[in-house]
Design goal:
Layout: E1 3-4, H1 21-35, E2 40-45, H2 52-65, E3 69-74, H3 85-92, H4 102-106, H5 109-112, H6 114-131, E4 134-139, H7 146-158, E5 164-170, H8 181-192, E6 197-198, H9 204-215, E7 218-219, H10 221-228, H11 234-246, E8 250-253, E9 256-259, H12 268-277, H13 281-290, H14 299-306, H15 310-321, E10 325-327, E11 333-335, H16 338-346, H17 350-366, H18 371-379, H19 383-395, H20 397-403, H21 405-418, H22 426-439, H23 443-453, H24 460-476, H25 480-491, H26 498-515, H27 518-535, H28 538-554, H29 558-575, H30 577-580, H31 585-594, H32 598-615, H33 621-634, H34 638-654, H35 658-675, H36 678-693, H37 700-713, H38 717-724, H39 736-740, H40 744-754, H41 758-774, H42 779-793, H43 796-809, H44 812-824, H45 830-840, H46 843-855, H47 876-886, H48 891-898, H49 902-916, H50 921-931
Parallel strand pairs: 2-5, 2-6, 3-4, 4-5, 7-9
Antiparallel strand pairs: 1-8, 8-9, 10-11
Helix pairs in contact: 1-2, 3-7, 6-7, 7-8, 9-10, 9-11, 11-12, 12-16, 13-15, 14-15, 17-18, 18-19, 18-21, 19-21, 21-22, 22-23, 22-24, 23-24, 24-25, 24-26, 25-26, 26-27, 26-28, 27-28, 28-29, 28-31, 29-31, 31-32, 31-33, 32-33, 33-34, 33-35, 34-35, 34-49, 35-36, 35-37, 36-37, 37-38, 40-41, 40-42, ...
Organism: Paractinoplanes rishiriensis
Keywords: ATP-binding, Nucleotide-binding
InterPro entries: AAA_16, P-loop_NTPase, Sig_transdc_resp-reg_C-effctor, TPR-like_helical_dom_sf, Tscrpt_reg_LuxR_C, WH-like_DNA-bd_sf
């Protein structure tokens, strides 16, 4: 006797993981590793329906059984409309509950202060990982929102030393999907890291096993052959078999399932349609209607959309949940798989689909959902709705640009596709879209769209706005010449609004300074100041003043540099808002370092960094790292300076801020040479050349001088001079190198003399004397002039004056260089120079001085005997971090205790783990307890 199969509930995922034994074994090892205290990340990738979600679900219970806290969430297509929803949604549902994430339930950080929340998230994750190892699972990661994607890029390296394991499921991109924040962050993860776990189609044996389990009986070849038409995709196979069961086309005879009949479903959508038609009409209408939500929804929203009461909806929801819907941890409803939702959605006629999106737009607006979600639905509701979507996005463009510029840009791009070519609103829309693309760091798209539109006969105001967006995009990526070209083109229109003129001049100031056109840069900064104050555009005033501070620094006018920076800080503190977001303390710190006011500079950088962290201004991070590196270098702390610069470079690369990568690479190159690591210095130089080949510009003090230092260290002094030949004449008007590195003046003299060019050596002496006269209160400037003249004229007394000035300025590396030159002219100062460079970690100079002492028949003096430090393989800075971590502190707590940045702690820990050969904080704690018992 035959019976129809289908009395089992097939909702959700019900099959075993047939054919996935290797993947299960690998994930089991990962879970065991995490339980033992290690962190890391992995990406599962494969086409929709291949079983990624099921595989992720399979690790949750074993993880919990091993004492791992689990935070899991599926991302949805509309996640980009709600900043941080993907990540905070996972953490809110963490099991077991932890107080570390309790604040996420009390607040809505994604709407209140989304950028500031990133910093708090890191601290909370560190706290949670201290309580239990933590597994964070993000399914359909390609749909994660922009801030969650940014957080992932920040948090994965930051938490690398903590027992935090990340698992992402991701489908390969196609078409426009390639630019989603989720796809971008997955590409970043896979670029240099762990290979992905690729899920392949199931083989015939696994398909047969799957078919038997879905049917609930053995199956014959008719079933296996039909299932094979789904190309090894388990979800499609399961949906097809469901449809056969529902329509009575799959029956069991004597314990074996078999397909009967000729009219078989032709594909996945047909299979879903068969299931849908098996429901009552009200339940089927419910599913068709809610398929437009594209995210989890509550029963109240569904009731309003269907025109029913919540009570009337209850039996329909129960019926739909048998095969289509599931309940999430927050009690909301969603389709069991997005492929099923898409299939149902595809069955809606266009006119009905547009009306449903119109209704959902009203529902989401009334519920206070984010503007971008409302706009998404309006965009899909027909031409009038698209216009309303654009109006909404444009009205809040500045706010959206801080949290989800990419999602907003995508709305605008789709609206552009829908707009008529002669629509008068099209050109202003292009200008706004370019600005959003630039804010999202989608610079090539911004430049392409803007470039295509500039010759379209724009009105002056629209053209200027478009060119402002392009200028800002180019400046961010280090393309200073293009920045100036766009700004100049916009400023040629006298009718443009004054606030826009002020913003154009502000960005132009910085670009011109980097191009070496200092007079024009200072004039543009002055105009930004005047026009910005006139129109109330305070952010342009602050950025213009910061640019003028940079110009004055470059020209060696240190008092002016300080005054401009102080004025910018005072205005930013008074006005707040976007003006404060320019973070002018960055340039104030640089001016204070130039004036040898190191303690004040440290306080300014620390305070400014805290403000920057609270505001979530990720763009400023590389600059903070650069100026903190400059401070540490000036104080002779080479190890700390190197870690700080490396941290800044990592952040710059994460945000594709190539303009900020250049000066950090220059610092790393010079530090590597001082340490005697010429191979690493060459690696940094190669990196600089790759960026320069892409059109990224940098000032000569950042990279040209660094390359010359490397050439000299390699014995190629003549090549170093040839590289700097055109640089010497500019020193009179551009003495910034003496400001950044006071010892460089004497080295420039030495290079020119050894290359047989005394005229250029004299240029340095004249330039440093003028520089010192301009800055009579600067010990470093006076010492730099005395040092250069002393070396040029072989004047011991002059070099000794430099020694005295550098000693008062507290510049150890410059002091050591002057002491070494004094010794070469007959002084007895090698021992002190050797002591300083040894303390600073300047290994190359130490080796040279010891060799000179041996030539003189002298024995290199030794420092007073000290007890051997614990963990001798670590630097002092690394040892301090290791001891604090060994005491149980999180990276954030270590940063607070040691007054360094979190990124610097992260970098130190990476070095510590590599040197000690450990992978877990617990292992480090054991080593610290064994080797440093008196400290711990």
């Amino acid at each position: 006797m035959a019976r129809t199969v289908g009395d089992r509930r097939l909702a959700g995922v019900t099959w075993d993981l047939f054919g996935r034994e290797p993947e299960i074994q690998f994930l089991t090892r990962i879970i065991d590793d995490t339980a033992a205290g290690a962190g890391g990340w992995h990406v599962l990738t494969g086409p929709p329906g291949i079983g990624k979600s099921r595989l992720l679900q399979a690790v949750l219970a074993p993880a919990a059984a091993r004492g791992i806290a689990v935070a899991s969430r599926e991302a949805f297509r509309l996640d980009p409309a709600v900043p941080l929803v993907t990540l905070t949604g996972a953490l809110r549902d963490c099991s077991p509950e932890t107080s570390a994430f309790a604040w996420l339930a009390r607040h809505e950080p994604e709407r209140a202060d989304p950028l500031g929340t990133l910093q708090r998230l890191r601290t909370s994750l560190e706290q949670a990982a201290r309580e239990n190892p933590l597994l964070i699972v993000i399914d359909d990661a390609q749909w994660m929102d922009e801030l969650s994607a940014l957080a992932v890029r920040e948090l994965i390296p930051a938490l690398a030393s903590s027992p935090v394991r990340w698992l992402f499921a991701h489908r390969p991109p196609s078409g426009a999907d390639r630019s989603t924040p989720g796809h971008q962050v997955v590409r970043w993860l896979l670029r240099d890291g762990t290979p992905p776990i690729r899920l392949r189609p199931l083989d015939e044996t696994a398909i047969a096993q799957l078919s038997a389990q879905v049917v609930g009986a053995e199956v014959d070849n008719t079933v296996v052959a039909l299932a094979a038409s789904c190309l090894g995709n388990p979800l499609r196979t399961e949906q097809l078999l469901r449809a056969l069961v529902r329509t009575g086309q799959l029956v069991v005879v004597r314990g074996v399932g078999s397909v009967v009949g000729d009219a078989l479903p032709s594909g996945f959508v047909d299979a879903v349609r068969e299931l849908l038609e098996s429901l009552s009409e009200p339940a089927a209408w419910l599913l068709r209607s809610v398929s437009v939500f594209d995210r989890p929804f509550d029963i109240g929203e569904a009731a309003r959309l269907c025109g029913r009461t919540a009570m009337e909806m209850a039996p329909l929801v129960r019926e739909a949940m048998d095969d289509f819907l599931v309940e999430d941890p927050l009690g909301r409803l969603a389709f069991a798989h997005d492929l099923v939702r898409q299939a149902v959605y595809s069955m809606l006629p266009r006119s009905l689909r547009e009306q449903l999106h119109r209704d959902v737009a009203a529902i989401t607006r009334d519920a206070g959902r984010p503007v971008l979600e409302v706009a998404e639905h309006q965009l899909k509701s027909g031409r009038s709705g698209a216009a309303e979507a654009v109006r909404l996005v444009r009205s809040t463009a500045r706010e959206i640009a801080r949290v989800a510029p990419g999602a907003a840009a995508d709305v605008m791009l789709r609206a552009l596709d829908a707009a008529d070519a002669d629509d008068p609103g099209r050109l202003p829309l292009i200008a706004d879209t370019v600005g959003l693309l630039a804010a999202a760091a989608r610079l090539e798209e911004a430049r392409r769209l803007g470039g295509e539109s500039l010759d379209a006969g724009l009105d002056p105001q629209t053209s200027a706005l478009l060119q402002l967006g392009l200028a800002e995009a180019c400046k961010h990526s280090g393309l200073d010449r293009q920045t100036v070209e766009y700004a100049d083109a916009a400023l040629r229109h006298p009718e443009i609004p004054v606030p826009v003129q002020a913003r154009l001049h502000a960005v132009r100031t910085h670009a011109l300074c980097y191009l070496g056109e200092l007079a024009g840069a200072d004039d543009s900064g002055s105009r930004a100041d005047t026009l910005g104050r006139q129109s109330g555009e305070s952010a342009a005033v602050v950025f213009g003043l910061a640019g003028r501070s940079l110009v004055a620094y470059t020209e060696g006018r240190l008092t002016d540099s300080l005054a401009h920076a102080e004025a910018a800080v005072e205005l930013a503190d008074r006005e707040g808002g976007e003006a404060a977001q320019r973070h002018p303390r960055i340039w104030l710190g640089g001016a204070l370092i130039a004036l040898d006011r190191f303690d004040e500079a440290a306080e300014v950088i620390s305070a400014g960094r805290r403000k920057s962290d609270r505001s979530g201004a990720a763009w400023a991070d590389p600059l903070w790292h650069y100026f903190h590196t400059a401070l540490l270098y000036a104080r002779g702390r080479l190890d700390d300076a190197g870690v700080e610069a490396q941290s800044g470079l990592a952040v710059a690369e994460q945000h594709e801020a190539n303009a900020l990568a250049m000066p950090l690479l220059g610092m790393l190159l010079r530090i590597a040479v001082r340490r005697g690591d010429l191979s690493r210095a060459q690696d940094h130089l190669d990196h600089v050349r790759r960026l320069a080949g892409d059109g990224v510009t940098a000032v000569p003090e950042d990279v040209l001088w660094a390359e010359a230092v490397l050439l000299c260290a390699s014995g190629a002094t003549k090549a170093a001079f040839d590289l700097l030949r055109d640089f010497y004449p500019r020193l009179l008007e551009r003495p910034a190198l003496f400001t950044a590195d006071p010892a460089s003046a004497a080295e420039l003299v030495r290079i020119a003399r050894q290359a047989g060019h005394p005229g250029e050596a004299s240029m340095v002496v004249v330039a440093t004397r003028r520089y010192a006269d301009r800055n009579p209160g600067s010990r470093s400037a006076t010492g730099s002039a005395a040092h250069a003249a002393g070396v040029h004229h072989s004047d011991l007394a002059g070099v000794q004056r430099a020694v005295a000035e550098f000693r008062r300025a507290d510049r150890p590396l410059a002091l050591a260089a002057a002491l070494e030159d004094a010794a070469a002219l007959g002084g007895d100062t090698y021992p002190e120079a050797l002591s300083i460079v040894t303390r600073c970690g300047a290994e190359r100079v130490r080796v040279r001085i010891e060799a000179l002492l041996r030539e003189r028949g002298a024995v290199a003096p030794h420092e007073a005997a000290e007890a051997a430090p614990c963990l001798p393989q670590l630097t002092k800075a690394e040892r301090r971090v290791a001891i604090e971590v060994g005491a149980g502190r999180t990276n954030s707590e270590v940063a607070e205790v040691l007054y360094i940045s979190k990124h610097t702690v992260d970098a130190h820990l990476r070095n510590i783990f590599a040197k000690l050969g450990v992978r877990r904080r617990a292992e480090l704690a054991r080593i610290v307890a064994q080797e440093c018992p008196s400290i711990t």
